[in-house]
Structures are given as C-alpha cells and as structure tokens.
Amino acid sequence: MRYPINEIFQTIQGEGYYTGTPSIFIRLQGCPVHCNWCDTKYTWICDDKDNVSSKEIINKKQVSKQWSFITIEEILVILKKWTAKHIVISGGEPCLYNLLYITKILETKGYQCQIETSGIKNIICSSNTWITLSPKKNMKPLNESIIRSNEIKFPILKQEDLLYVYDILSNIKDTKKRIIYLQPISQNKKALNICIDICIKQNWKLSVQLHKYIKIQ
C-alpha cells in the first residue's frame, strides 16, 4: 500500500480539538474542492510531472507541488526520527484514498490518528481515528461523513457563511456528541469577531489556527 504524499513534518497542531498537541502531519496530494482561500493549493493537482523520489519529499524544505508515492513501511521509518505520537492525515483531500490500512498500522505502533477532511468522500479508516470534518460551501459533505465526524470545524469569512453552518447542523438527526468549531478564514479580524459572537451565543468553540499566529508550519 502506498500513498501520494506531498510532505511529512512534525509540528504543533494549530486547529480544533487537538490544538497545541505535538503532531506529525502526513499531507496527501490531490483535492477536487479548490477553495479560493485555501492555504495548501499546491496539493490540489496530482500531476505526473511533479512526481519525484520519496527522498526528495522527506527532505523537502519548502512547499511545492512535488509529491511521491510512499509506502507505509517507508512512512514508519520516517516517523522514527520524531517524538510526536499524534498523526494528522491531511491534504489536499485525504479521503480520496482508502486510509483503513495506514490508520490501523499506525495504531499498532502506538500512534493516535486524526483525519482532516471536507467530507466529500467516504471516510475509510480505523474506528479509533479522530475525524475532523471541515465542510466547504462549494461542495456539501456526504451524510455518512457528517455522521462519522468527531468534530465539525466550519471556516467562516462573513455573516452569510453561518447560513451554511445552520443548514448542515439542522440535518443531523443522531445524538452523537460532536464538538462544533467556528474558524475565521485567514486571520480575518471581521470574521474573528463574527465567530466569537456566535460561539458565545451557541456555546460552540473557537478555532483560531494557532500555528499561523505563532508562525510555525
């Protein structure tokens, strides 16, 4: 089993429930959502001309469209050089791929897995994997993805974005306890004030992309 990987790095998780947690990010290549404000646009297209060696990806010093097919065995070797035990599988859109095997293998090695997804594809992973669903207005998440989520993190830029939030949440019929976050887009001050106001009114939580404020990857 191998995956198209854009980068692997250790950092601090800056968003949602695991904010502040030392984490290793495995960023997969490919995403059909294409949000205007996306800060990982370099992961959108999985083009053969950008396919390089796994060594080049491991040693990558700056963001680029370059990616490589890397096996789980190779990933496990890479992970040994770091101390974090929390793995964030992100993208791009990681759920373009079957993540059951990699999440199960990582768990047997003592890692906790988290997947960050827009929810447009079925989420195929271990039952213990934490699912962070971040719905995007231009592509509504699958109902199955909403049901599987542990937290739902809504990116907010303007007041009208809340209509999409309420629409998604109003259609959830189960009683599962999910954490609801509002996250201002691109550290926008107006969006931040909107999020703070609604989080207080609804008793939701605020996610502020800590990594951008403290200027880390």
Automatic annotation (TrEMBL):
It comes from Buchnera aphidicola. HAMAP family: QueE. It catalyses: 6-carboxy-5,6,7,8-tetrahydropterin + H(+) = 7-carboxy-7-carbaguanine + NH4(+). Keywords: 4Fe-4S, Iron, Iron-sulfur, Lyase, Magnesium, Metal-binding, Queuosine biosynthesis, S-adenosyl-L-methionine. SUPFAM superfamilies: Radical SAM enzymes (SSF102114). The keyword Iron-sulfur applies. The keyword Protease does not apply. This is 7-carboxy-7-deazaguanine synthase. GO terms for molecular function: 4 iron, 4 sulfur cluster binding; carbon-nitrogen lyase activity; magnesium ion binding; S-adenosyl-L-methionine binding. Its EC number is 4.3.99.3. Homodimer. Residues 18-217 form the Radical SAM core domain. Signal peptide: none annotated. Substrate binds at I12, Q13, G14, R27, S90. Pathway: Purine metabolism; 7-cyano-7-deazaguanine biosynthesis. One of its GO terms (biological process) is tRNA queuosine(34) biosynthetic process. S-adenosyl-L-methionine binds at W37, C38, D39, G92, S134, P135, K136. Catalyzes the complex heterocyclic radical-mediated conversion of 6-carboxy-5,6,7,8-tetrahydropterin (CPH4) to 7-carboxy-7-deazaguanine (CDG), a step common to the biosynthetic pathways of all 7-deazapurine-containing compounds. Mg(2+) binds at T40. NCBIfam families: rSAM_QueE_Ecoli (TIGR04322). It holds the Pfam family Radical_SAM. Binds 1 [4Fe-4S] cluster. The cluster is coordinated with 3 cysteines and an exchangeable S-adenosyl-L-methionine. Binds 1 S-adenosyl-L-methionine per subunit.
